[in-house]
Amino acid sequence: MKLEELIYKRFASSENLVKHLAIFSGAPAVFSPEPPGESQEGWGGNTQYPMVVYNFDLQANEERRSAGTLSVSLLCQNTAEIMPEEIEPIIKDCLRDVILKPEGGTPYCFAWARTDAFSIDEKKGDVTIGSEIRFDILEYPSQETSDPDPIMATNQYIKGIYPECLIMGYDRMEEITEATAERPVIYCRLLSADKAEETNTVAWMDGRIAVHILCPDSGKRLKMAAAIANSISLDGEIIMLDYSPMFIKRLQANYKSDYLKDGQIFVTGHYGLLRYRAKPHSLQAAHVKYK
Fold first, then answer.
1. Three-class SS of residue 22?
2. pLDDT at 83
3. 3-state class of 196 per DSSP?
4. Span 56-105, pLDDT tens digits
5. What does the alpha-carbon distance between residue 226 and residue 79 come to, in Å, rounded to a whole number?
6. How many helices (H) and strands (E) would you count in the chain?
7. What whole-number distance in Å separates Cα of residue 250 and Cα of residue 266?
8. Per the omega criterion (within 30 degrees of 0), is the bond before 28 cis?
9. In what order do the strands lie in the sheet with 166-167?
10. What is the pLDDT of residue 285?
C-alpha cells in the first residue's frame, strides 16, 4: 500500500474513532485530500459530520528535522453532541508509536507537533467547528552500510539482549507496526563516521550511533535504555559481523531526549577497516597418481 492508504487504514480501523464519525457510502467519513460535497449520494441524506480530512507533504524540513508534515482536519458541527476536543485524543492515539512502511518505501513514524482550533460560519446559519492536528513525519531509512557494518552489529547486539523487540533494519517489518510495552521497536542510526587514525594495515574509524527505543510505556522505555547502556558499558565492545571488535570509546544515555527524533543512547564505537584481505590459497597445479 501507499502511505496515503496506510494512513486511511489506520484511521478507518480504529473502532474508537469510527463510532464518532459520519458514514459515506458505507465507510467511515475519512477522506484525502478533499471531502465529497454535501449533495453527493453517498451521504444518503444523513449528516456529514463529524469527518476527518487528512493531507501530507513529504518535503523535508531541516529546522524540525522531519521528512514532511501530516495535517489532519477534524470537522464537527456546533449542534452535534460530541465536540472536536473529545475526538482529538483518539486521532493522536491512532498515530502514536506507529510505524507505517509503504510498499517499496522506507518506514515512517509520526510525532505530534501542534493543534489549532477553528470555526467556519455557513450560509444556513450553522457553524462548523474543528481542529487542525499537525504531525511531523519522521523517516527511518535503512542504515545498513558496508562490511564491517557498525549498525548491523549494534542491531544484532541489542537483539541478543531483547529478543522480543522488533529491530528496524534487522527484523522483517509489516506495513503497519505498532510499538507496545510487550514488543517495543528499536531503531539504530549512524550519526557520523570519522577516521581517527591509520596504520599500514588498518584504518581506524570512530562511528557515532544513536539508539531509539519506541515504546508507549515511559517506565519500560527508561528501563530498557538503562539496561542497554549498562550492558554495552560492561562489555566494552560490540563484535562486528566479521568477528572483529568495535571498542566502545564513549557512551551517553539521555533519558529525557525525544525518543522519536533524537534517541536515548549515543555510542561512539572505534572499529577498524582492513586495508588488505587475507589472500586465500590458490591451486597452482594438479597431479594425478595412478595405482
1. coil
2. 85
3. strand
4. 988 766 655 678 899 999 998 877 778 888 999 999 999 999 999 999 88
5. 51
6. 5, 15
7. 8
8. no
9. 166-167, 185-198, 202-214, 265-274, 245-253, 237-239
10. 62
